[in-house]
User: What shape does this take?
Amino acid sequence: MSKKITHTDIIVVGAGIAGIASAYYLKKKRAKSRFFILEALDSFGGTWYTHKYPGVRSDSDLFTFGYSFKSWNDAPIATASEILKYIGETIKENNIQNNIKYNHKVLKADWSNSEKKWTLMVEHSTKKQILYFSCNFLQMCQGYYRQNQGYIPNWKNIENFDGKFIHTEEWPNKLNYSNKKIIVIGSGATAATTIPVLAKKAKHVTMLQRTPTFYRTSTIGTEEIANTLRNITDDSEWIHKIVREQILINQEIFIKRCVEEPEKVRLELLEEIRNVLGEQFDIEKHFSPSYRPWQQRIALTPDAELFKSIANQDVSVVTDEIESFNKNGILLKSGEELSADIIIAATGFNMSILGDIEFSIDKKFINLSDTITYRGMMFTSIPNLIWTFGYFRQAWTLRAEMIANFMIKLINHMDFIDAKKITVKLRKKDQNMKILPWIREEEFNPGYLSRALEKMPKSGSNIEWVHNQNYWYEKDIIPNIDLNSEEFIYE
Ligand SMILES: Cc1cc2nc3c(=O)[nH]c(=O)nc-3n(C[C@H](O)[C@H](O)[C@H](O)COP(=O)(O)OP(=O)(O)OC[C@H]3O[C@@H](n4cnc5c(N)ncnc54)[C@H](O)[C@@H]3O)c2cc1C
Assistant: This one.
């Protein structure tokens, strides 16, 4: 008996903030296309649905992390539940709910060159059934890490610890941490978010870091601009647009300064901390990273809340390496011992490349690391597929919206020239270009990326084959790509 296959024009994988942006644009600009979103979880929101650790919030302001088409009317930094509400409203206002199929986890995707379509093998997670879908075009909005599965370094003797050990990605439903001694391992965005919240109830929190992180203590005037405009008008769309533009200008200036005068920016960032912790605190040791500002994302601690909890002695910072775990806590390489009731690992992600889906063409398996990315949106030899991978250092969604629009322009163009298949291919002038890792580690090098780099697609030294992470460059380039260029092969 042949298997039942449900066909549609476009399938979007993932109902996170990126997948919903795509759905919005498909409804607005490509009304004649039928589409589904296949989502592995039982609800929308992705990151904002799965993360449950205390205090979970955005690091970006919502004027830029929120959509260009839906105004944000609250404080710039938002909690996970506020972001979920915003995404939920977008779904409702644009009638996207019937396009989403929840509990549908895509396992395999096979492109058929004869039929010019993708067939997807999908696991229905509650019915425990395998279903099949096919589509002419596939958009991957799968995010970049495995949900609910954090990265734990290879520490010795974790099992010897008598207390509770938790990863922030896998936060238990109920955890009583009132009056407990807590160690949080890590000092990135997640640690900076949760530590001040934990410290309100805990007996004491120790932030244990191997190396320091850079922090900002404000969203560079965002709140002030928004409030000033709100005093002038109640036109929320206009306010959203103006604040968004102003933030993008402020960020551009800041990022340029990080490249042009990194030492000056470093001193400014450290000065913000010194203002709270005073001259006696060893800021150099605990808060001055070895990398340049923006070589890794700068974590936000709004209103300097992390430093205030250190100043109040609710939190202490230890910069050292873990030798091993023991019954009471952690033994450090320096010989110092830290004891705790609860140890929390805020040590980041495991990358998920294209949603851990097994891709094949005519049933022949594709190794992604054998492909080269076209501007971080497509891959050589993989037809009719768009990859949504946002910005790390600016709001992710700025790029997600740009890519959704690019995909629609591409599909419109294919209609116009009556093409059923699009593949990107190296041009003659690309044959001798240098093949490079997907992203240059000297530019951006967080641990989760470095760990996965060899499995990622490659990039090239010619600009079309670079996955650029610069919004200010791409905002003028991507919308104006010439779809008749030599690298696009249509059939
Ligand atoms: C705690 C936290 C805070 C963050 N804060 C910010 C911030 O302030 N600013 C910023 O720019 N970025 C931030 N990020 C990065 C953040 O993940 C992205 O910005 C953004 O939310 C990603 O949206 P997305 O829709 O692309 O992916 P996700 O939110 O990861 O959603 C992807 C969806 O795809 C689904 N999916 C994946 N694989 C499959 C499959 N095989 N089949 C079916 N469905 C699948 C997943 O279940 C998920 O629902 C943060 C990340 C974390 C973890």
Notes: The first strand starts at residue 5 and ends at 13. Residues 5-147+351-490 form a domain with the FAD/NAD(P)-binding domain fold (CATH 3.50.50.60). The two ends are 32 Å apart (CA to CA). The longest helix spans residues 236-260.
